[in-house]
Protein backbone atom coordinates (compact mmCIF):
# COMPACT_ATOMS: atom_id res chain seq x y z
CA UNK A 1 0.00 0.00 0.00
CA UNK A 2 1.57 3.30 -1.03
CA UNK A 3 2.02 5.96 1.64
CA UNK A 4 -0.21 8.42 -0.19
CA UNK A 5 -3.18 7.26 -2.23
CA UNK A 6 -4.05 10.71 -3.54
CA UNK A 7 -1.45 10.54 -6.31
CA UNK A 8 -1.34 8.34 -9.38
CA UNK A 9 1.46 6.01 -8.27
CA UNK A 10 4.16 5.26 -10.80
CA UNK A 11 1.86 6.37 -13.60
CA UNK A 12 1.66 3.27 -15.79
CA UNK A 13 -0.95 3.74 -18.48
CA UNK A 14 -1.70 0.03 -18.92
CA UNK A 15 -0.91 -3.28 -17.21
CA UNK A 16 1.51 -4.14 -20.02
CA UNK A 17 3.36 -0.84 -19.47
CA UNK A 18 3.67 -1.74 -15.78
CA UNK A 19 5.38 -5.03 -16.72
CA UNK A 20 8.19 -2.97 -18.27
CA UNK A 21 8.71 -0.94 -15.09
CA UNK A 22 11.78 -1.11 -12.82
CA UNK A 23 12.50 -4.12 -10.64
CA UNK A 24 10.94 -4.14 -7.16
CA UNK A 25 13.32 -2.97 -4.40
CA UNK A 26 11.29 -3.23 -1.19
CA UNK A 27 8.22 -5.18 -0.03
CA UNK A 28 5.82 -4.29 2.78
CA UNK A 29 4.40 -7.03 5.04
CA UNK A 30 2.08 -6.84 8.07
CA UNK A 31 3.58 -8.92 10.90
CA UNK A 32 1.24 -10.49 13.47
CA UNK A 33 1.96 -11.45 17.09
CA UNK A 34 -1.56 -12.65 17.98
CA UNK A 35 -1.58 -16.29 19.19
CA UNK A 36 2.20 -16.28 19.61
CA UNK A 37 4.16 -16.13 22.88
CA UNK A 38 4.65 -12.36 22.51
CA UNK A 39 2.26 -9.63 23.66
CA UNK A 40 3.86 -6.97 21.49
CA UNK A 41 1.74 -4.97 19.00
CA UNK A 42 1.54 -5.99 15.36
CA UNK A 43 3.72 -3.97 12.99
CA UNK A 44 4.50 -3.25 9.34
CA UNK A 45 7.80 -4.65 8.08
CA UNK A 46 9.82 -3.43 5.12
CA UNK A 47 12.02 -6.05 3.39
CA UNK A 48 14.87 -5.25 0.99
CA UNK A 49 14.52 -7.45 -2.13
CA UNK A 50 17.20 -5.82 -4.34
CA UNK A 51 20.01 -8.40 -4.79
CA UNK A 52 22.75 -5.74 -5.14
CA UNK A 53 21.77 -4.05 -1.86
CA UNK A 54 23.86 -4.65 1.30
CA UNK A 55 20.62 -5.24 3.24
CA UNK A 56 19.19 -7.79 0.76
CA UNK A 57 16.77 -10.20 2.53
CA UNK A 58 16.81 -8.13 5.76
CA UNK A 59 14.33 -6.12 7.66
CA UNK A 60 14.75 -2.42 7.31
CA UNK A 61 12.14 -0.35 9.13
CA UNK A 62 9.49 -1.97 11.39
CA UNK A 63 6.64 0.41 12.19
CA UNK A 64 3.90 -0.21 14.75
CA UNK A 65 0.44 -0.57 13.29
CA UNK A 66 -2.55 1.19 14.80
CA UNK A 67 -5.86 0.95 13.00
CA UNK A 68 -9.33 2.11 13.93
CA UNK A 69 -12.55 1.55 12.01
CA UNK A 70 -16.25 1.30 12.56
CA UNK A 71 -16.33 -2.37 11.53
CA UNK A 72 -14.09 -5.13 12.84
CA UNK A 73 -11.48 -7.42 11.27
CA UNK A 74 -10.31 -5.28 8.32
CA UNK A 75 -8.75 -7.19 5.45
CA UNK A 76 -8.25 -5.88 1.89
CA UNK A 77 -7.34 -2.31 1.01
CA UNK A 78 -7.54 -0.58 -2.37
CA UNK A 79 -6.83 2.99 -3.38
CA UNK A 80 -9.70 4.69 -5.22
CA UNK A 81 -9.57 7.19 -8.05
CA UNK A 82 -10.98 9.77 -5.64
CA UNK A 83 -7.85 9.58 -3.49
CA UNK A 84 -9.66 7.71 -0.73
CA UNK A 85 -8.73 4.28 0.61
CA UNK A 86 -11.34 1.54 0.80
CA UNK A 87 -10.98 -1.42 3.16
CA UNK A 88 -13.14 -4.52 3.38
CA UNK A 89 -14.08 -5.91 6.78
CA UNK A 90 -15.07 -9.40 7.89
CA UNK A 91 -17.30 -8.78 10.88
CA UNK A 92 -18.84 -6.59 13.54
CA UNK A 93 -17.20 -5.80 16.89
CA UNK A 94 -18.90 -8.84 18.47
CA UNK A 95 -17.29 -11.28 16.06
CA UNK A 96 -20.35 -11.94 13.91
CA UNK A 97 -20.10 -12.01 10.14
CA UNK A 98 -20.60 -8.65 8.42
CA UNK A 99 -19.21 -7.81 5.00
CA UNK A 100 -18.96 -4.03 5.08
CA UNK A 101 -16.43 -1.51 3.76
CA UNK A 102 -14.67 1.44 5.36
CA UNK A 103 -13.53 4.60 3.57
CA UNK A 104 -10.41 6.44 4.74
CA UNK A 105 -8.98 9.79 3.74
CA UNK A 106 -5.97 9.01 1.54
CA UNK A 107 -3.77 11.67 3.15
CA UNK A 108 -4.79 11.75 6.81
CA UNK A 109 -6.05 8.14 7.08
CA UNK A 110 -9.02 9.42 9.06
CA UNK A 111 -12.17 7.29 8.90
CA UNK A 112 -14.76 8.88 6.60
CA UNK A 113 -17.50 6.30 7.02
CA UNK A 114 -18.96 3.21 5.44
CA UNK A 115 -18.94 2.72 1.66
CA UNK A 116 -22.11 0.59 1.59
CA UNK A 117 -25.54 1.92 2.51
CA UNK A 118 -26.89 1.30 6.04
CA UNK A 119 -28.26 -2.20 6.45
CA UNK A 120 -26.86 -3.43 3.13
CA UNK A 121 -23.65 -5.14 4.26
CA UNK A 122 -23.15 -8.70 3.00
CA UNK A 123 -23.52 -11.58 5.52
CA UNK A 124 -19.76 -12.18 5.41
CA UNK A 125 -16.76 -10.29 4.08
CA UNK A 126 -13.18 -10.81 2.99
CA UNK A 127 -11.77 -9.60 -0.34
CA UNK A 128 -13.02 -7.28 -3.10
CA UNK A 129 -12.07 -6.02 -6.55
CA UNK A 130 -13.72 -3.33 -8.65
CA UNK A 131 -13.77 -2.63 -12.38
CA UNK A 132 -14.81 1.01 -12.84
CA UNK A 133 -15.25 0.85 -16.62
CA UNK A 134 -18.07 -1.61 -16.02
CA UNK A 135 -19.40 0.08 -12.87
CA UNK A 136 -19.04 -3.09 -10.81
CA UNK A 137 -17.43 -4.42 -7.65
CA UNK A 138 -17.34 -8.04 -6.53
CA UNK A 139 -16.71 -9.08 -2.93
CA UNK A 140 -16.13 -12.49 -1.31
CA UNK A 141 -16.99 -14.21 1.95
CA UNK A 142 -14.77 -16.05 4.43
CA UNK A 143 -16.67 -16.51 7.69
CA UNK A 144 -17.69 -15.08 11.05
CA UNK A 145 -14.54 -13.89 12.86
CA UNK A 146 -15.59 -15.59 16.10
CA UNK A 147 -15.67 -18.93 14.25
CA UNK A 148 -12.19 -18.37 12.79
CA UNK A 149 -10.50 -17.25 15.98
CA UNK A 150 -9.25 -20.55 17.36
CA UNK A 151 -8.90 -22.56 14.17
CA UNK A 152 -11.14 -24.50 11.80
CA UNK A 153 -14.08 -26.52 13.10
CA UNK A 154 -15.83 -28.49 10.29
CA UNK A 155 -19.11 -28.29 12.20
CA UNK A 156 -19.11 -24.50 11.76
CA UNK A 157 -19.57 -24.96 8.01
CA UNK A 158 -22.83 -26.87 8.52
CA UNK A 159 -23.91 -24.32 11.13
CA UNK A 160 -23.68 -21.50 8.60
CA UNK A 161 -20.66 -19.66 9.98
CA UNK A 162 -18.87 -19.64 6.60
CA UNK A 163 -19.83 -18.03 3.32
CA UNK A 164 -20.20 -19.43 -0.20
CA UNK A 165 -21.32 -16.42 -2.25
CA UNK A 166 -19.96 -13.70 -4.48
CA UNK A 167 -21.62 -10.33 -3.93
CA UNK A 168 -22.02 -8.00 -6.91
CA UNK A 169 -22.23 -4.25 -6.23
CA UNK A 170 -22.98 -1.16 -8.29
CA UNK A 171 -19.74 0.81 -8.06
CA UNK A 172 -21.43 4.20 -8.49
CA UNK A 173 -24.47 3.86 -6.23
CA UNK A 174 -22.86 1.48 -3.69
CA UNK A 175 -25.93 -0.76 -3.88
CA UNK A 176 -25.73 -4.56 -3.85
CA UNK A 177 -27.11 -5.82 -7.16
CA UNK A 178 -26.77 -9.56 -7.07
CA UNK A 179 -25.65 -12.55 -5.02
CA UNK A 180 -23.98 -15.39 -6.93
CA UNK A 181 -24.45 -18.62 -4.99
CA UNK A 182 -21.46 -20.89 -5.63
CA UNK A 183 -22.83 -23.83 -3.65
CA UNK A 184 -20.77 -26.42 -1.72
CA UNK A 185 -18.04 -26.47 -4.37
CA UNK A 186 -17.60 -22.74 -3.84
CA UNK A 187 -17.54 -22.75 -0.04
CA UNK A 188 -15.25 -20.14 1.54
CA UNK A 189 -14.48 -17.96 -1.51
CA UNK A 190 -11.45 -15.91 -0.55
CA UNK A 191 -9.27 -13.92 -2.97
CA UNK A 192 -11.01 -12.44 -6.01
CA UNK A 193 -9.22 -11.09 -9.09
CA UNK A 194 -10.60 -9.42 -12.20
CA UNK A 195 -8.37 -9.63 -15.24
CA UNK A 196 -6.07 -6.60 -15.31
CA UNK A 197 -7.34 -5.48 -18.71
CA UNK A 198 -9.73 -2.68 -17.65
CA UNK A 199 -12.10 -3.63 -20.48
CA UNK A 200 -12.42 -7.22 -19.25
CA UNK A 201 -15.69 -8.42 -17.75
CA UNK A 202 -14.38 -11.60 -16.15
CA UNK A 203 -12.04 -12.85 -13.47
CA UNK A 204 -11.37 -15.66 -11.00
CA UNK A 205 -11.96 -16.47 -7.36
CA UNK A 206 -10.26 -19.13 -5.24
CA UNK A 207 -12.64 -21.18 -3.07
CA UNK A 208 -10.77 -22.68 -0.15
CA UNK A 209 -12.80 -25.51 1.34
CA UNK A 210 -13.03 -27.76 -1.73
CA UNK A 211 -10.05 -26.18 -3.49
CA UNK A 212 -11.81 -24.93 -6.61
CA UNK A 213 -11.26 -21.88 -8.78
CA UNK A 214 -14.36 -20.31 -10.29
CA UNK A 215 -14.43 -18.00 -13.29
CA UNK A 216 -16.98 -15.19 -12.97
CA UNK A 217 -18.18 -13.24 -15.97
CA UNK A 218 -20.81 -10.80 -17.22
CA UNK A 219 -23.58 -12.29 -19.34
CA UNK A 220 -25.19 -10.80 -22.43
CA UNK A 221 -28.17 -9.92 -20.21
CA UNK A 222 -25.95 -7.76 -18.00
CA UNK A 223 -26.07 -10.09 -15.01
CA UNK A 224 -23.11 -11.99 -13.56
CA UNK A 225 -22.55 -15.73 -13.36
CA UNK A 226 -19.77 -18.11 -12.29
CA UNK A 227 -18.47 -21.50 -13.42
CA UNK A 228 -15.91 -23.88 -11.93
CA UNK A 229 -12.77 -24.08 -14.09
CA UNK A 230 -10.07 -25.60 -11.81
CA UNK A 231 -10.29 -28.32 -9.17
CA UNK A 232 -7.54 -29.57 -6.87
CA UNK A 233 -8.75 -32.96 -5.65
CA UNK A 234 -8.62 -33.82 -1.96
CA UNK A 235 -6.30 -36.61 -0.86
CA UNK A 236 -7.38 -39.52 1.34
CA UNK A 237 -5.08 -39.51 4.36
CA UNK A 238 -4.53 -40.86 7.84
CA UNK A 239 -3.03 -39.03 10.79
CA UNK A 240 -4.90 -35.80 10.11
CA UNK A 241 -8.00 -33.90 11.28
CA UNK A 242 -10.28 -35.47 8.63
CA UNK A 243 -10.10 -38.58 6.42
CA UNK A 244 -9.66 -36.35 3.36
CA UNK A 245 -7.36 -33.34 3.10
CA UNK A 246 -8.28 -30.50 0.73
CA UNK A 247 -5.62 -28.36 -0.87
CA UNK A 248 -7.18 -25.24 0.75
CA UNK A 249 -6.62 -22.55 -1.88
CA UNK A 250 -5.92 -19.43 0.15
CA UNK A 251 -4.39 -16.89 -2.24
CA UNK A 252 -4.55 -16.33 -5.98
CA UNK A 253 -3.15 -13.69 -8.31
CA UNK A 254 -2.99 -12.98 -12.04
CA UNK A 255 0.07 -11.74 -13.94
CA UNK A 256 -0.26 -8.25 -15.37
CA UNK A 257 -0.47 -9.58 -18.92
CA UNK A 258 -3.43 -11.78 -17.88
CA UNK A 259 -1.60 -14.90 -19.07
CA UNK A 260 -0.91 -16.79 -15.83
CA UNK A 261 -2.93 -17.43 -12.68
CA UNK A 262 -1.09 -18.52 -9.52
CA UNK A 263 -2.50 -19.96 -6.32
CA UNK A 264 -1.32 -21.55 -3.10
CA UNK A 265 -2.63 -24.79 -1.57
CA UNK A 266 -1.96 -24.04 2.09
CA UNK A 267 -2.62 -27.57 3.37
CA UNK A 268 -1.08 -29.60 0.55
CA UNK A 269 1.91 -27.24 0.50
CA UNK A 270 2.25 -26.36 -3.19
CA UNK A 271 1.99 -23.33 -5.46
CA UNK A 272 0.46 -23.84 -8.90
CA UNK A 273 0.81 -21.82 -12.09
CA UNK A 274 -1.98 -22.05 -14.66
CA UNK A 275 -2.00 -20.71 -18.19
CA UNK A 276 -5.36 -18.90 -18.54
CA UNK A 277 -5.02 -17.80 -22.17
CA UNK A 278 -8.13 -19.90 -22.77
CA UNK A 279 -10.18 -18.30 -20.00
CA UNK A 280 -12.61 -21.21 -19.59
CA UNK A 281 -10.00 -23.96 -19.81
CA UNK A 282 -6.90 -23.16 -17.72
CA UNK A 283 -4.05 -25.71 -17.87
CA UNK A 284 -1.36 -26.45 -15.31
CA UNK A 285 1.97 -24.93 -16.41
CA UNK A 286 4.02 -25.13 -13.21
CA UNK A 287 3.98 -26.47 -9.66
CA UNK A 288 6.33 -26.42 -6.66
CA UNK A 289 6.05 -27.79 -3.11
CA UNK A 290 7.36 -25.62 -0.25
CA UNK A 291 6.41 -27.50 2.93
CA UNK A 292 2.81 -28.16 3.95
CA UNK A 293 1.02 -30.99 5.75
CA UNK A 294 1.98 -33.80 3.37
CA UNK A 295 5.74 -33.73 3.90
CA UNK A 296 7.42 -37.14 4.02
CA UNK A 297 8.31 -38.25 7.53
CA UNK A 298 5.49 -36.23 9.11
CA UNK A 299 2.37 -37.49 10.88
CA UNK A 300 0.23 -37.58 7.72
CA UNK A 301 0.26 -40.51 5.31
CA UNK A 302 -1.44 -40.27 1.93
CA UNK A 303 -3.61 -43.32 1.27
CA UNK A 304 -5.09 -42.30 -2.07
CA UNK A 305 -4.27 -39.39 -4.36
CA UNK A 306 -6.30 -38.84 -7.56
CA UNK A 307 -3.32 -36.89 -8.97
CA UNK A 308 -0.94 -39.77 -8.11
CA UNK A 309 1.77 -37.48 -6.76
CA UNK A 310 4.54 -38.58 -4.40
CA UNK A 311 4.53 -37.05 -0.93
CA UNK A 312 7.01 -34.17 -1.12
CA UNK A 313 10.15 -33.88 0.95
CA UNK A 314 10.67 -30.99 3.37
CA UNK A 315 11.58 -27.57 2.02
CA UNK A 316 15.03 -26.53 3.26
CA UNK A 317 16.56 -23.12 2.48
CA UNK A 318 19.96 -22.02 3.80
CA UNK A 319 19.92 -24.96 6.20
CA UNK A 320 16.51 -24.09 7.66
CA UNK A 321 13.58 -26.47 7.38
CA UNK A 322 10.63 -24.26 6.46
CA UNK A 323 7.72 -24.43 8.93
CA UNK A 324 4.20 -23.97 7.62
CA UNK A 325 3.20 -23.79 3.99
CA UNK A 326 3.06 -21.29 1.10
CA UNK A 327 0.20 -18.84 1.55
CA UNK A 328 0.27 -15.16 0.51
CA UNK A 329 1.69 -14.45 -2.94
CA UNK A 330 3.03 -11.40 -4.76
CA UNK A 331 4.40 -11.33 -8.31
CA UNK A 332 6.99 -8.93 -9.69
CA UNK A 333 5.67 -6.53 -12.30
CA UNK A 334 7.58 -8.32 -15.07
CA UNK A 335 6.15 -11.65 -13.89
CA UNK A 336 9.53 -13.32 -13.31
CA UNK A 337 9.67 -13.46 -9.48
CA UNK A 338 7.02 -14.74 -7.11
CA UNK A 339 7.33 -13.82 -3.41
CA UNK A 340 5.68 -16.07 -0.84
CA UNK A 341 4.90 -15.94 2.90
CA UNK A 342 3.59 -18.79 5.03
CA UNK A 343 1.09 -17.45 7.60
CA UNK A 344 -2.67 -17.61 6.95
CA UNK A 345 -4.43 -16.56 10.16
CA UNK A 346 -2.86 -16.95 13.57
CA UNK A 347 -5.58 -19.24 14.95
CA UNK A 348 -5.34 -21.51 11.91
CA UNK A 349 -1.53 -21.33 11.95
CA UNK A 350 -1.60 -22.55 15.54
CA UNK A 351 -3.95 -25.42 14.68
CA UNK A 352 -2.29 -26.75 11.52
CA UNK A 353 1.33 -25.60 11.82
CA UNK A 354 2.19 -25.16 15.51
CA UNK A 355 5.92 -25.15 14.72
CA UNK A 356 5.38 -21.91 12.79
CA UNK A 357 3.96 -20.26 15.91
CA UNK A 358 7.16 -21.16 17.76
CA UNK A 359 9.59 -20.40 14.93
CA UNK A 360 7.82 -17.58 13.08
CA UNK A 361 6.89 -17.49 9.42
CA UNK A 362 9.24 -16.98 6.47
CA UNK A 363 9.34 -15.18 3.14
CA UNK A 364 10.61 -17.04 0.09
CA UNK A 365 11.13 -16.23 -3.59
CA UNK A 366 10.26 -18.38 -6.61
CA UNK A 367 11.73 -17.87 -10.08
CA UNK A 368 9.10 -18.02 -12.84
CA UNK A 369 9.55 -19.24 -16.40
CA UNK A 370 7.30 -16.82 -18.29
CA UNK A 371 8.02 -18.37 -21.69
CA UNK A 372 7.11 -22.04 -21.23
CA UNK A 373 5.74 -21.99 -17.69
CA UNK A 374 7.45 -23.46 -14.63
CA UNK A 375 8.44 -22.58 -11.07
CA UNK A 376 11.79 -23.02 -9.28
CA UNK A 377 12.98 -22.08 -5.79
CA UNK A 378 15.57 -19.33 -5.31
CA UNK A 379 17.75 -21.04 -2.71
CA UNK A 380 19.64 -17.81 -1.97
CA UNK A 381 16.58 -15.91 -0.71
CA UNK A 382 15.07 -16.36 2.74
CA UNK A 383 13.65 -13.88 5.24
CA UNK A 384 13.27 -15.62 8.60
CA UNK A 385 10.72 -13.84 10.80
CA UNK A 386 11.68 -16.11 13.69
CA UNK A 387 14.67 -13.88 14.33
CA UNK A 388 12.78 -10.66 15.03
CA UNK A 389 13.91 -8.65 18.10
CA UNK A 390 10.48 -9.10 19.70
CA UNK A 391 10.39 -12.82 19.07
CA UNK A 392 8.96 -14.97 16.25
CA UNK A 393 6.25 -13.22 14.25
CA UNK A 394 3.74 -14.19 11.54
CA UNK A 395 4.28 -12.24 8.31
CA UNK A 396 1.29 -12.08 6.00
CA UNK A 397 0.35 -10.07 2.90
CA UNK A 398 2.99 -8.68 0.52
CA UNK A 399 2.68 -5.27 -1.14
CA UNK A 400 5.01 -3.03 -3.17
CA UNK A 401 5.08 0.70 -2.40
CA UNK A 402 4.19 1.75 -5.96
CA UNK A 403 1.47 -0.80 -6.72
CA UNK A 404 1.45 -4.46 -7.68
CA UNK A 405 -0.52 -7.35 -9.23
CA UNK A 406 -2.92 -7.58 -6.29
CA UNK A 407 -3.69 -3.91 -5.74
CA UNK A 408 -3.40 -1.97 -9.01
CA UNK A 409 -6.69 -1.30 -10.80
CA UNK A 410 -6.77 0.64 -14.07
CA UNK A 411 -9.55 3.20 -14.52
From TrEMBL:
<dbReference type="GO" id="GO:0015031">
    <property type="term" value="P:protein transport"/>
</dbReference>
<comment type="pathway">
    <text>Organosulfur degradation.</text>
</comment>
<protein>
    <recommendedName>
        <fullName>Methanethiol oxidase</fullName>
        <ecNumber>1.8.3.4</ecNumber>
    </recommendedName>
</protein>
<keyword id="KW-0963">Cytoplasm</keyword>
<comment type="similarity">
    <text>Belongs to the selenium-binding protein family.</text>
</comment>
<dbReference type="InterPro" id="IPR008826">
    <property type="entry name" value="Se-bd"/>
</dbReference>
<dbReference type="Pfam" id="PF05694">
    <property type="entry name" value="SBP56"/>
</dbReference>
<dbReference type="GO" id="GO:0005829">
    <property type="term" value="C:cytosol"/>
</dbReference>
<keyword id="KW-0472">Membrane</keyword>
<dbReference type="GO" id="GO:0008430">
    <property type="term" value="F:selenium binding"/>
</dbReference>
<keyword id="KW-0653">Protein transport</keyword>
<keyword id="KW-0813">Transport</keyword>
<dbReference type="GO" id="GO:0016020">
    <property type="term" value="C:membrane"/>
</dbReference>
<keyword id="KW-0539">Nucleus</keyword>
<keyword id="KW-0560">Oxidoreductase</keyword>
<dbReference type="InterPro" id="IPR011044">
    <property type="entry name" value="Quino_amine_DH_bsu"/>
</dbReference>
<dbReference type="InterPro" id="IPR015943">
    <property type="entry name" value="WD40/YVTN_repeat-like_dom_sf"/>
</dbReference>
<comment type="function">
    <text>Catalyzes the oxidation of methanethiol, an organosulfur compound known to be produced in substantial amounts by gut bacteria. Selenium-binding protein which may be involved in the sensing of reactive xenobiotics in the cytoplasm. May be involved in intra-Golgi protein transport.</text>
</comment>
<keyword id="KW-0711">Selenium</keyword>
<dbReference type="GO" id="GO:0005634">
    <property type="term" value="C:nucleus"/>
</dbReference>
<keyword id="KW-0007">Acetylation</keyword>
<dbReference type="GO" id="GO:0018549">
    <property type="term" value="F:methanethiol oxidase activity"/>
</dbReference>
